[in-house]
Structures are given as C-alpha cells and as structure tokens.
C-alpha cells in the first residue's frame, strides 16, 4: 500500500510546474490509505503539506468526501424525512471571537428545524474552544453517546451531535499530523462540508478565503448537494459578522443559477457593532447563560442577528426581518433555555443507560 501511495504523493508533491491533480478516484484512494494508516507516517505528513501547497481541486475534495462516506458514520434519516441542517464549523475551534453557533442551533431546534453538529476535542492549529466543550460547560456531554443515541436525540429534541473521536475514530489519526505540520491540511475543508446524515440535508458552512468558497461550491456540485449556505464567517465559522458586511452564497433545490450571492449589511437592520471577544471559556459560558436568561448584551445582539438570518434561510420565517423578530421573541420567552433543558434531559438519560 505504501508503494501505491507513493505514486499519488509524487503527483501532488512534484512542484508548482510539474505536479498533477488527482482524479476523484485517486483522491478517494489516498484518503482511505491515510485514514486506515496504510501509508507510512512520512508519506502522510508529506502528502498533507504538499496537498495544501498545491491547493486541492473540487474533484479531489469530492473524492476525499467519497472516502469519508465509505469509512465514516451516518445518522439514519428521521421519520418523515425533514430537511436536517448540518452545521460545519472548524474543528480547531475559536480563539478570538465568542461563538454563537450553539445558540443558533438551539434557536433552530426550538423552531422545529433539526440540526446536526459535529467535531472533536481541542486540536491544532488554532487550539481554540471546540463546540463539544461549550456543550459540556452547559451540562450536556455528547462524548459518550452511541450513534443510535445521537439519532434518538435528533428525533426527540431536533438536535444531535456527532463526536468524531467515538463515531469516526479513523479521523483521530490526523490530529497529531495537524499538530506536527502546524498548518491546516485540506481535510480541514472536508470537515466543514462533510454531511454525516442519510436524508435530506441543508449544509451550513463557513469559510475565510474566496478560493475556499469556490472549492466548496465545485465540490458540492460534483456531490449533488443542492441545498447549502456558505458564509464568510467569523474565524471560518458559520457565524455572521457584525463589524462588516456578511458575504453569503446560497443554493436551494430548483435554483437555475449555480448559486445566489447575498451581501447583508448589519447596520441596515440595526445590528452593526463590535464582535464580542473571546476572553476565556469560563467567561464565554457565563455570557451564554446570561443570553439564555434573556439578559441584554452585545452577545445577545449577535445571537439575534445570526438566529434571525438562519430562521429565514431555513424557511421558518418568510423574510429576514421576521426572522430577527422571532429570534428576539425566542430569547425573551425562554424558549432557548427550554430547548436546552430538553436536550440535557434526553442526553443525560442516554448517558445513564449507556453500556
């Protein structure tokens, strides 16, 4: 296997003038050999950095996702086959700005929109706060659930979390490599657009650089994904900014154009302001609890701005203004705290009856 992998490595690592892109099938094979650790450590490290320097193509990313489908986990479709929103956020977490992705998910779930999030523990290159730790800080531990229990949580509470160290352990082999090479490999892009759900999906993912958005759009087209929202978000997440214009590309079934471009100016809706800094996990959790209690703050404004947009984008509200009003109402009436309590009860019951 290492001899076969060497030929694929030579293609992507031969320099700026002589390298060759992998076919979709070759990229899938390379990914399988990496995740199964059939290639040697030297080959894997060389491939990750060479592929980053070369820049992946949409066809290569599609092949890598094919391998994820083959080796990874998939949550079975829900009864009635509703559209499930899968939120792809950077696995290396957030380190500069306070994330509201978790509260956005609560808001959607409280409004009847099923949501899946996924990720693991603290990792390179940012070593930021991962989503699973924020959930744990709010009293909900997703790390012990089986995939069946994740499905049950999604069915019952309209929220599920895939903890990749348990549900897709092959990806853990990449964690040390990310630390050692000190750069995000193309697998970081794969994580953002991975869809571990068997039914109808709406992908939400963030990006930083315009080329990444283009790679994502091309990959999703090759994969037949026709319902997505890509956001030039805070630190590559799907959180909309408040200090600048939110740049968003969307596609939904039936669109005649490859994608629709949105530019939302927060000042036009009364939400312009400084991003809330991330000082510490403890402070973040205190701020989130204040938002759940209905207390006014800059973070609450960020939650309403994001929640309102996604309530509109997911079809709960007919216009953005309606979404913003509904988001504020969900906060002031305690609906998010109620949703959090429902998830906590379900997950705690599952954890008590695990194994």
Automatic annotation (TrEMBL):
Domain Glycosyl transferase family span(s) in chain numbering: 82-335
Classification via Pfam families: Glycos_trans_3N (PF02885), Glycos_transf_3 (PF00591)
UniProt xrefs under InterPro entries: Anthranilate_Pribosyl_Tfrase, Glycosyl_Trfase_fam3, Glycosyl_Trfase_fam3_N_dom, Glycosyl_Trfase_fam3_N_dom_sf, Nuc_phospho_transferase
Record GO biological process: L-tryptophan biosynthetic process
Single GO MF annotation: anthranilate phosphoribosyltransferase activity
GO CC entries: cytosol
Name of the protein: Glycosyl transferase family, helical bundle domain protein
Domain Glycosyl transferase family 3 N-terminal: 6-69
PANTHER family: ANTHRANILATE PHOSPHORIBOSYLTRANSFERASE, SLL1634 PROTEIN
Keywords annotated in UniProt: Amino-acid biosynthesis, Aromatic amino acid biosynthesis, Glycosyltransferase, Transferase
Source taxonomy: Bacteria, Bacillati, Cyanobacteriota, Cyanophyceae, Coleofasciculales
